[in-house]
User: Fold this.
Amino acid sequence: MITTTGLTKVYRSRGREVTALDGVDLHVREGEVFGVVGRSGAGKSSLIRCVNLLERPTSGSVVVDGRDLTALAGRGPRAGAELRRARSRIGMVFQHFNLLSSRTVQGNVELPLEILGVPGRERARKARELLGLVGLADHARSWPARLSGGQKQRVGIARALAGDPKVLLSDEATSALDPETTRSVLDLLRDLNRQLGLTVLLITHEMDVVKTVCDSAALMRDGKVVESGTVSDLLATPGSELARELFPLGGRSRDRGGADEERTVVDVTFHGESTTRPLISRLSRTYGVDVSILGAAMDTIGGRQVGRMRIELPGRFEDNAVPIGFLREHGLTVEAAETVAEATETVKDPR
Ligand SMILES: Nc1ncnc2c1ncn2[C@@H]1O[C@H](COP(=O)(O)OP(=O)(O)OP(=O)(O)O)[C@@H](O)[C@H]1O
Assistant:
């Protein structure tokens, strides 16, 4: 539904150049919720602004719903008619809601319809329908200043849906909200995604957002996408940074971890059916090895149950090829805990 190819954005200001996007290839499938995460300055906002051509990319292409937006003329507010039409099919939700305080809730939702030239009666009907969809039917005549943050964001979402978009872009839509309100706004986005078949591309710095609503995710660093995929594929990818951040393991290894002469510490990820099978006790019985469990956690990610466990086996990693092969054959992801253990210790035990 959204494909960017070689997307590059270089800002030039006061003789300085900043490369905010450095050849981003991203593919968001129709009907999925796709989360882009990364530190401040990684290029997330630039990406989202280039996807709807609020910012014109320096090079590369953006195709949304089969249409190459980069081939259409104009930029920002000076977009040509064709680009404006294509953009009206892309809804946008902002961190600080961007509501007009001089208009009622209904007036705010009607605004994009006015711009599209929809007649008054039809505008009012559509705005009320959208307010019903986001659970604000009773607030049509309220003023934005009277609303809570969560309600304001619901108005922002209703307004974003006014042009019947197929794609919704969300720029840190829940960052200004408390955890409970965040949850209800994310639930709303998930419902709209399912009910309307809406494709959602969201950017966030909160891994919990990805965990709660995203089918797929990408990690950005220095203007590049360094990892991307479905959340379940990422969780099954040994060494995935996103998987580690989505699902940090609470337990710690005894010292620097990993593989040494005497023992092997590995992180095991269980998904789907394997979460309910007693594979560790079978491993222990079948191969007569003592397995020590150093840490374990279960969670629901993208609506699916996932488990992680850090275990210790006697002997070196190479000596454990058969038991590790047994776990992998049964669909588990197994990786040496060396780097993970060190990272965990640095965070948990800042001596
Ligand atoms: N209009 C601009 N002019 C010049 N440089 C810019 C502009 N917008 C962004 N940048 C720079 O581009 C880089 C990427 O910024 P961007 O806002 O896309 O990152 P981000 O990941 O969204 O960060 P944040 O979460 O802090 O918004 C940064 O170095 C930023 O300073």
Q: What stands out?
A: Residues 11, 13, 18, 20, 38, 40-46, 205 surround adenosine-5'-triphosphate (CB under 6 Å). The chain is about 35% helix and 30% strand.
